[in-house]
Amino acid sequence: MDFITKKEIDLVALLQKSHCPSAGAVVLFSGEVRNHNIGKSVRYLEYEAHTNMATKMIAEILLAARNRWSLSIAFAQHRIGKVKVTESAVVVITASVHRGEAYASNRYIIDRIKHEVPIWKCEHFADGTKEWGGNCNCAKDTGDVNKHLYEFESV
User: Fold this and answer.
1) Is 20 helix (H, G, I), strand (E, B) or coil?
2) The model's pTM
3) To 10 degrees, what angle do helices 51-69 and 99-116 make?
4) How far apart are CA 38 and CA 69, in angstroms?
5) pLDDT digits (tens, 9 = 90+) for 67-107
6) Strand partners, 123
7) DSSP-assigned beta bridge partners for residue 134
8) Strands, DSSP E only, in the chain?
9) How remote is the C-alpha of 147 from its chain's centroid?
10) SS3 at position 113
11) Mean pLDDT of the chain
12) Are 16 and 1 in contact (CB under 8 A)?
């Protein structure tokens, strides 16, 4: 399964493939395009990625999560190209023996993907303007592109 895709993410199909006899918990996170941001109406988002590097980094993040939480399943997929309002831009699925690990690992994975993986988004607004940026907007608050608003150890 590809970690980066141009196709619409099929959440139902992915969830159906994410059940495991040893897992008592399955968590699915879907990052979806909303119809507003920064006080403007959003028409759609457009994503670009350094596909080879992004694929490698997502695989490393998933492996780290699997090892840290002894996960039965750790999966993530991010779209590139045009993504419409209400469509999923990114999905993370984790499965583990207990819900605590499934939730914590899912949050860890999406935070690392959003903040570290070379994926960029362009927001297209209803007023005809657009704004490019990375998935991580923490620098607006921290003043430093290397400082993020989350802490891995607290997850």
Assistant:
1) coil
2) 0.89
3) 150
4) 36
5) 999 999 999 999 999 999 999 999 999 999 999 999 999 99
6) 45, 131
7) 120
8) 4-5, 25-32, 36-37, 40-49, 73-79, 81-84, 88-96, 119-125, 130-134
9) 19
10) helix
11) 92
12) no
